[in-house]
Design a protein that fits this description.
Elements (H helix, E strand, L loop, with lengths): L3 E11 L4 H9 L16 E4 L6 E10 L5 H18 L4 E10 L7 H10 L1
Antiparallel strand pairs: 1-3, 1-4, 2-3
Length: 118
């Protein structure tokens, strides 16, 4: 039994932002730029409110069993909802998707590395 790294992506859209909320998001936009996107246990949020009202949260978690993946996905979505709600942002169209990295094919560099060590 090996550990599985699960990446959860939660997407949605801000809904009915007030002028003050929009200004707050714009003021903090540099911290949430896609250049800083990362899959972390705490979660990483990105958005470009100046261009469109969409956001993405990224979470990572390690589990032992494939059967744990739905729970990880639900935790990621719940964490995104908590963050949005705690900051007073209404949202819509929230979706969550999980990727099991143990099932992801290796790219060229990964195959070379595996061949060298295996």
């Amino acid at each position: 039994m090996s550990a599985r790294t699960i990446r959860v992506t939660v997407r949605g859209a801000f809904d009915a932002l007030t002028d003050a909320q929009r200004a707050e998001l714009l003021a903090d936009a540099a911290r949430h730029d896609v250049a800083f996107a990362a899959f972390t246990a705490e979660g990483s949020m990105t958005y470009d409110i100046a261009a469109r009202p969409f956001f993405t949260f990224r979470y990572a978690e390690t589990v032992a069993e494939e059967s744990d993946i739905p729970a990880v996905t639900a935790r990621g979505q719940a964490a995104a909802q908590r963050w949005l709600t705690s900051h007073g942002y209404a949202y819509k169209n929230l979706t969550a998707q999980a990727v099991d990295l143990s099932q992801t094919p290796l790219g060229k560099r990964g195959r070379k590395e595996a061949a060298r060590h295996g």
